[in-house]
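Thread amino acids onto this structure.
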């Protein structure tokens, strides 16, 4: 599949796992962009205009929810999926209110 995917996660192991899962499902690894904090995620979202953003909820410098708010100001149409190990419903509720796809 020919989508540009931004993977924003501060854990390198998680980035590699996500990339591996995507590659196993037909996504081209050379179309994946990787960042480790929310500030970088916002910058890359603006510069590279990915089709899909996988955004960790808790990252240094700028958390995923705040990054999502800023990304939505740049691009209302990009699909965003929040990823998290937290089971707090409040995080999911806020992410969906900010326009996360899943």
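Threaded sequence (102 positions):
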């Amino acid at each position: 599949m020919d989508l540009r995917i931004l993977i924003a996660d501060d854990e390198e192991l998680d980035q590699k796992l996500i990339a591996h899962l995507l590659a196993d499902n037909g996504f081209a690894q050379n179309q994946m962009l990787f960042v480790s904090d929310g500030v970088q995620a916002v910058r890359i979202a603006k510069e590279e205009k990915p089709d899909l953003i996988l955004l960790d909820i808790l990252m240094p410098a700028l958390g995923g929810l705040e990054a999502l708010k800023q990304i939505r100001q740049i691009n209302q149409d990009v699909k965003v999926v929040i990823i998290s190990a937290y089971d707090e419903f409040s995080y999911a509720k806020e992410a969906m209110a900010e326009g996360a796809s899943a």
